[in-house]
Structures are given as C-alpha cells and as structure tokens.
Backbone:
C-alpha cells in the first residue's frame, strides 16, 4: 500500500513538474514577458524572470524531475575547509572516498551515491570536455609563464608539480576512475586546476557544471547501510564547494544554487570555530534555503572539548537559538568527532573484512587510529592483539558520538528517500507557483496602466533608488551611534565586574576567606565559616609537602570560584543587552527606510498596481552575539596564573612559581630541613593583573564581534532592498516597452499573460494538495 501510494504521488509530482516547465517555456515565447537585465548593473545577480533567471528556474525544476524519476533523496553537505567536511563525509560513508588535505578540496559539486554491492568506489566524470579545453589554455599560458614567478604565487608541492607535468604532456582526464587512490588523484587535480587557473588568469569553467548531470559522481556502498533492507528510493550525498573556497567568491552563488536543489541539507560546523566568519557564511547559506528543506548540523571536533567548554546541550542551544535563530531544531544538531568516527568505522570494517589492520607503515590512517584508540604510547605489537583492537575500535566509535546521526539521518533517509524527493519537489513547485503568480499579476496590471503613469513610476523609482543610496550613510551613522551606546554599556558592565572582582580578591587575601556573597555555591557551603589562612598573611610557610600541595589546591579553587562567579554575573547582564541591540537596529533601519518603501507602494497604487512591497527583514542572525563564546575568545577565566608552569617538577620549584622567583629553588637549597613557602602578596598581584588583562581583552572581543556582525547585517539588508527595487524597475520598464505596441498586439499579450496566470493558479492549487498528501504520508511513515 505504501509503495502504491508513493508511486501515485510520484506520478502526480512528475505531471506538475512537466507542467511548470511547459509554463516557463511558454513564458519565454511571450513577447515582452521576460525581463531585461538592468543596464546600470544595480542587480548583481540575474533577475528572477530575466532570461538567465528563467533558465535557472528551469534547471531547478529539471533537477527535481530527475530526482523524482530516480526516487533520489539528495543530502547536500556544506562546510568550510577547516570544519572537516571531507572527513565527515568519509565517516558517513564508512570508508575513505574523498581526499583529505589542509586546503580547499571541492572545486566542483560531487555526488556520492549509495550503491549496494559496490565495495570499491568508482568515480564517473562523463562531462570532461570543458576540463580538457581548460588544460589546453593553461598549456599555452605556461609556455610564457616563468616557473620562478609561478612559485611566488602558488605552492609548488608534489601534487601541483605532477599537475604541471600533466598539462605540459597533454595527459587527458579519464571518464571513469576505479578505486580510492585514482579517485583521490582525479579530485586533487581538479582542485589544483582551480588554484592554477586563478594564478594564470584563466577562467575555470564552473558554468559548464551548473547542470547536475554534468558534475562528477561516485558510486560506492555506504558501510552503515550495508545489509539493511532495501529502502524506498536512492540516497545520494552532495559534496558542495564551501563559500569563497579556493579564493573564488562566485562559488557562493553556486553553493546557494546547489543547496536550493537538495532534498535536505547537512551543515558541518567546527566546534572550535563556531563564531568564525567562514562558518557564518555557511550558516547564512543554509538559512537562505528556507523551511521547505530539512536542515541538520554535525558539530565536528567535539573531541577537543575540555572541562571549561560547552557541553552537548549547550552547543545545541547555542547553534539553534543564537547562531541559527531557530532555523535548525536542537534535535537535528549532533556534536561529534568525525575523525574518530571515520577511524573507528574504517578499523572495524578492515577487521570484519580481513581479520586484521593493514601495516601502519603503509597506511597512515592506521597510525592515526592507534593513537586515538590506544593512546600516544601504542606499539606495533598492540595491533596484533585483535580482540583488544576490536574493543578499542568499538569504544572509539562510541566516543565519536556518530551513532545517533547515522541512525537519525542516514538510516531514515535511506528508508524514505523517495518521500524526501517528493517533499523537496512539492516545496520547489510551491515556491515557483507563488513567485510566478505574483510576477504575472504585476505584469498584467502594468498593461492596463497608461504609458505616462508607468514612466512617472519609473522616474520616481529611480529617485527612490538614489535616495536609498544617499540615505545609507545616514542610516549607518545612526546604527553606529546605537552600537557605540551598546559598547559603552558593555564596557560599564565589564568595568563593574572588574571592580567587584578586585574587591573580592582584596577581601580574600586580607581575610583568608571568600566574601560572604560568594558562599551561595553549593560546594562552598560546608566551608562557609572556615578560613583558608590567617587574615593579613603575606606569606605561608609549611613544613609538610602534602600540606603545601593541599593549600595550593585550596587557593586555586578559591581563585577559580571568584572568576567563575564573575563570569556568570557578566553573562547574565550581557545576555539582556544583545537582544535589545538586535531589536534597536531593526527598528532603526525600518524607521529610516520606511518612507522609501511607502513612496514606492503609494506610487504604484496611484498608477493602478495592487502589489505588496515590504522592506526585507533585518538578518539578526548575522549578529551572532553569544555571551559564553566571548569569554572563550578573550581569556578563559579559569586559567589563573597559579597554573602557569615556569619550572620543572618538584615542590620547591612549584613554590617558586607561586613566588614568581627566578633565583630560588631546590637546586640551591642546602638546609637540612625543607620548608615550603607560598607568597600570597605575589599571588594576589598576579591574579589582579590577570583580571585586568581579561577585562581589556573581553572589551576588545565584544567590540570586534559587534562591529563585524553589524556591518555584515547592514550589507545584506541594503543588498536585498536594492534588489527588490531593481526587480520592480525592470518590470515597469518591460511594461512600458509593451505599451508601445499596437492595441491588437497589446491585447494579445495581455491574453497570453492571463492564460499563464490562470495556469499558474491551477498549478499552485494542485501542488498544495500534493504537498498535504506527502506530509500526511510522512507523518504515518515516521510515527
């Protein structure tokens, strides 16, 4: 019954996709229907209903049609180079398919299809002609480009030297590569071609690989899916280029297009760099996909978590709430160690297939596995203990935390790939129908407006665009004033924290006990009345080494407790400031630019247009003002100077570290009885210096983060608003051009547009019903 229902829904989806493609072809054939690109170049991207925009929509719909026909669910994986995207993909697949190098490795989107029984990966690259043409151009350029000059702009490593020889000798790319090493070589060469092309000033043929059927694809059995019952449909991973990867800014557009054609998106984020600019670009790209595509996130390198770092629940809350503003559910966020997951699974696979691991001298991954699973002191003999290695691999897999995302994402996608493909197609169709309906309604109205009215609106719109450009400086000044006020408030909070911490430190080192207001900590309550040392002591002397060690631990715990509590107070205060800043910035932007919006709307209404024009939403997600991360980016409060090593081991050396002494140590001691000293005054001054440094760096971190985030948010806002006005301007000009035709031609054009409008309305209604049926089936499938 389920199979029959999916088949019927697929048939309906195919019908609607063919209908939408037919509508676009009809629209292209209608005179004055497609928009002309603004000659002023105000719009950086093709207009949605320009010739290029229509072709892009057609490719999106054809992509959905291919997925429906193949019952293929495409899981797009996006991440920056340092996030470990290739390692994560290898961990998902269960074996090494993609090469790992500390540089961009995805020049072209690459599909990786789960193919049961295909143990050895095979890469298919049927559309190789554009690369061959590129290599011919590079061969000509290299004849006149000195190798010494090339080495100044490019790292001539072993791979690059091999590629240069390959170009010189005219060696062709093959259309098929069998096995991991040949695949590595092919993909590495493609990525090195991107770098080389940039240096030599030759355009890489990215546009030739805009169509899905032209990009490389790999067939291989996913280890985690081997032996499972056949799912409904085909599961395929899509390895996407990161934004601005390999220094190619236009890859951002390619990334957006590929994500827009995916059935679901998996973002690979770096646990150690969640606030970085590169990760912000990835977050913006996946946020732009919209609600129609399921979003997931793997937070890689979680194995680098220490006792002071955020735990798994805190990471989920940070990404879902602060960084992604609710675009990803916390349940879809998985902190993992991709490297551990990949190493553990590959070791288990090797043990299952061959009963032992390969020679570590021959395959480097075995060395990495041994160090991760057995520790740094592993020996070759340890690898011969197969039961121990099996257990170590299982434990490493468990520690990688990869089991949950494999079950939640991979197994579910494999079982319901056809449903994911159907849901993706229905959302793409709905988006198409809505945008097309709005556009055609606007164009039909334009045919009923007199030329004078259209020209007046075009003139007003040009003026409004000029006003928008001129007002940007004033708006940015207002925003900057708001930022300055916020930074002043933040600085006051930090200074207040510093003052209170200084008072607490002074009190502690004077009275020998923590201030009373610090004693609400549950662990400190039993010691509430106990002093750690005699009041007003400047130096502690102990005869027993163990007593000295215990005193050191007591002092360290007290210092850390004061710093921890200070951080918690500041976190609470800043957490209230940042949402207010986001709200104020959004209100300032809309108050300043609402007159432009209103003038455009009023002018169109006066001319007879019934249209909805609104300012774009200010992307508060771009601010990413996270309190806890600020402390990590500045100075970790727990790293008090008492823990800074300055000498080798030995208790007297340890005491010398507390004294900050450079000339006292056990080497020079000649007394027959050893005493242990702790200089409290020196420790207090070191701690106060640490607090001062922490405050300064925290102030700087807040200022840097707010300024960069606000700049990014403003740039996005103005870009979106400018594009809206450009689209309206292009539509008005096209309507004015149509008005110049004869009445008979004008009437025929209006009838054609009305037929397209009616057909689009029918398409929208049928697609809405299809979407509802798919959602119902999804609910039954997942219940």
Residues:
């Amino acid at each position: 019954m389920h199979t029959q229902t999916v088949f019927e829904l697929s048939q309906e989806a195919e019908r609607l996709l063919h209908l939408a493609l037919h509508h676009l072809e009809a629209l292209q054939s209608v005179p004055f229907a497609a928009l002309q690109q603004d000659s002023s170049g105000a719009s950086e991207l093709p207009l949605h209903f320009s010739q290029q925009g229509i072709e892009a929509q057609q490719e999106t719909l054809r992509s959905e049609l291919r997925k429906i026909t193949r019952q293929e669910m495409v899981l797009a994986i996006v991440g920056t180079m340092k996030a470990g995207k290739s390692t994560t993909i290898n961990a998902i697949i269960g074996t090494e398919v993609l090469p790992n190098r500390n540089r961009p490795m995805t020049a072209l989107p690459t599909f990786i299809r789960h193919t049961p029984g295909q143990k050895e990966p095979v890469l298919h690259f049927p559309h190789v002609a554009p690369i061959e043409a590129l290599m011919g151009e590079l061969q000509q350029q290299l004849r006149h480009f000195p190798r010494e000059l090339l080495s100044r702009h490019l790292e001539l490593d072993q791979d690059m030297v091999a590629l240069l020889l390959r170009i010189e000798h005219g060696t062709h790319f093959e259309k098929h590569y069998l096995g991991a090493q040949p695949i590595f070589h092919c993909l590495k060469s493609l990525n090195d071609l991107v770098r080389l092309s940039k240096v030599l000033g030759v355009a890489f043929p990215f546009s030739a690989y805009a169509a899905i059927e032209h990009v490389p694809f790999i067939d291989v059995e996913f280890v985690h899916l081997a032996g499972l019952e056949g799912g409904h449909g085909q599961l395929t991973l899509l390895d996407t280029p990161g934004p601005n990867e390999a220094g190619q800014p236009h890859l951002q557009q390619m990334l957006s297009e590929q994500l827009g054609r995916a059935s679901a998106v998996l973002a690979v984020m770096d646990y150690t760099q969640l606030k970085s600019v590169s990760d912000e670009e990835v977050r913006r790209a996946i946020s732009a996909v919209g609600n129609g595509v399921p979003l997931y996130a793997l937070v890689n390198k979680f194995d680098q978590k220490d006792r002071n770092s955020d735990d798994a629940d805190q990471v989920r809350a940070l990404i879902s709430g602060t960084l992604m503003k609710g675009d990803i559910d916390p349940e879809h966020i998985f902190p993992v160690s991709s490297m551990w997951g990949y190493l553990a699974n590959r070791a288990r696979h090797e043990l299952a297939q061959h009963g032992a691991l390969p020679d570590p001298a021959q395959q480097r991954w075995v060395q990495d596995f041994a160090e991760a699973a057995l520790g740094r002191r592993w020996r070759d003999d340890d690898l011969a203990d197969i039961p121990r290695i099996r257990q170590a691999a299982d434990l490493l897999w468990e520690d990688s935390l990869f089991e949950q995302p494999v079950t939640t994402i991979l197994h579910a996608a494999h079982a319901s790939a056809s449903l994911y493909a159907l849901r993706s197609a229905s959302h793409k169709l709905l988006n198409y129908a809505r945008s097309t309906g709005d556009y055609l309604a606007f164009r039909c109205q334009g045919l009923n407006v007199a030329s004078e009215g259209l020209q007046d609106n075009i003139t007003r719109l040009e003026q409004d665009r000029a006003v928008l450009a001129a007002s940007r400086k004033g708006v940015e000044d207002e925003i900057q004033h708001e930022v300055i006020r916020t930074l002043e408030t933040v600085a006051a909070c930090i200074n207040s924290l510093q003052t209170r911490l200084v008072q607490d430190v002074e009190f502690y080192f004077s009275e020998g006990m923590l201030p009373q207001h610090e004693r609400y900590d549950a662990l400190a309550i039993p010691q509430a009345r106990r002093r750690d040392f005699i009041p007003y002591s400047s130096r502690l002397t102990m005869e027993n080494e163990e007593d000295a060690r215990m005193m050191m631990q007591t002092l360290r715990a007290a210092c850390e407790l004061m710093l921890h509590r200070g951080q918690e107070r500041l976190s609470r205060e800043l957490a209230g400031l940042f949402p207010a800043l986001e709200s104020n910035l959004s209100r300032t932007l809309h108050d300043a630019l609402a007159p432009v919006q209103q003038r455009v709307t009023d002018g169109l209404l006066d001319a007879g247009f019934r249209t909805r024009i609104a300012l774009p939403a200010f992307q508060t997600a771009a601010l990413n003002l996270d309190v806890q991360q600020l402390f990590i980016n500045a100075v970790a409060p727990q790293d008090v100077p008492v823990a800074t090593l300055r000498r080798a081991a030995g208790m007297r050396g340890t005491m010398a570290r507390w004294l900050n002494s450079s000339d006292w140590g056990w080497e020079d001691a000649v007394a027959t009885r050893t005493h242990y000293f702790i200089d409290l005054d020196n420790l207090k001054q070191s701690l106060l210096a640490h607090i001062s440094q922490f405050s300064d760096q925290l102030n700087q971190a807040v200022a840097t983060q707010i300024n960069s985030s606000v700049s990014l948010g403003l740039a996005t806002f103005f870009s979106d608003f400018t594009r809206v006005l450009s689209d309206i301007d292009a539509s008005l000009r096209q309507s004015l051009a149509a008005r110049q035709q004869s009445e008979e031609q004008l009437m025929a054009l209006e009838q054609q547009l009305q037929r397209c409008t009616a057909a689009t309305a029918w398409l929208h209604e049928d697609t809405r019903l299809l979407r509802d049926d798919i959602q119902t089936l999804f609910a039954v499938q997942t219940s």
In short: DSSP finds 21 helices and eleven strands in the chain. The domain at 78-118+128-337 is CATH 3.40.50 (Rossmann fold). The CA atoms of residues 34 and 508 lie 76 Å apart.
